[in-house]
Amino acid sequence: MVAREIGIRQSSKIPAIELESVSKCFRLYHDANYSLKEKVINFRKRGYDLFWALKGVDLTIFQGETLGIIGPNGSGKSTLLRMMTRIMSPNEGQIRTHGTIAALLELGAGFHPDLTGRENIYLNASILGFKRREIEGIIDEIVAFSELGPFIENQVKNYSSGMYVRLGFSIAINLNPDILLIDEVLAVGDESFQGKCLDRIARMQQEGKTIVLVTHDSDIAASVCDRVLWLEKGEEKMIGDPIEVTELYHEAMRMRPEGSEFGTRDIVINRVDILNSKGEAETEFETGEPLVLRINYSADDPVEDPVFGFGFYNQMGFMVYGTNTRLRGLDIAKVDGQGKMDFKISALPMLDGRYYISVAAHTRDGMVNYHWLDKLYYFDMHSPGKEEGFLTMECDIDLAPQ
Description:
Elements: E1 3-6, E2 9-12, E3 15-29, H1 36-41, E4 48-62, E5 66-70, H2 77-84, E6 92-97, E7 101-104, H3 117-127, H4 132-136, H5 139-146, H6 161-174, E8 179-183, H7 191-206, E9 210-214, H8 218-224, E10 227-232, E11 235-240, H9 242-253, E12 260-262, E13 268-275, E14 284-286, E15 291-304, E16 306-313, E17 319-324, E18 334-345, E19 353-363, E20 369-382
Parallel strand pairs: 5-9, 5-10, 7-8, 8-9, 14-20
Antiparallel strand pairs: 1-2, 3-4, 3-6, 10-11, 12-20, 13-15, 15-18, 16-17, 16-19, 19-20
């Protein structure tokens, strides 16, 4: 099978899901008839408008590919996913799927509230075509992954939203589908379970499963997907490289970190300069290039034993690297008046993406912040290779035949 490269992994040329000129509309009624009399009198008078949730979407998702779908509320993301599961049918166009599908849609979808968690496992699996003896072979794995313990014997109408997510995701991934469709629900689970779900998604990616992930968190889409589709008012706005699409989406939605500043201002950071090897202001760097982060500060009165530092953060808000003068063993007896401090990085190890910068001046014990500028600056990294993760490392490969 010939493979085509998408992002940093490879997927086949064989389609898993095909959409041809898919459109979906709903009726939006002008008024509501509440009583039986009103319904009879206004039976032929009630007007409505057509709302096109999706308009002419053409899309091919390949086997082994992970596609992220982002967009603002009302852009048609969930509608598109429901049509892939055949819960809805398009008004125009065609959808073809190839392989078994498991879907994790809105909370409670596919669950009977009066059945227990265990009974709903059998119900969900049977809807997907599994026989009882097949379910019995995997039900222990489903229950264990969900971490619901004794609650698995309770009626799901008594479940919290997080418990719904645990059960739904556990069923979907343990049925080992060819195609997994996920709609928003990961945002409901707690942090530890989200991490567990993302680990399982990564394993399914390595197994060559096809995954479609609808999410409001474009940073998650950028980090786990091979391509990202941006929907806007039911139409394709952009599709392609995850970093490129999500960055443009951030700009359009103004979703960049707002940034903040706080502190006693006994020391004031007046300006922060991001400089290249020539000492010029720069926001575009190649992996391996040097960077100088210059902090220009002032103190109206003497401040003894201060600490200066900075942190680099990726698009998901995780610190990629951070240090300060205390950690580097540099003691500053006192600052008074104006000054500057250069943090010189000889070779940036980060891979592709936008990185945000926080800088700070504080006491040695970190209890008092003189001035903290949080994620107010950024720079973009461009990497020539196809490595995975956030950082590059020197790696020599020696092949020696036995």
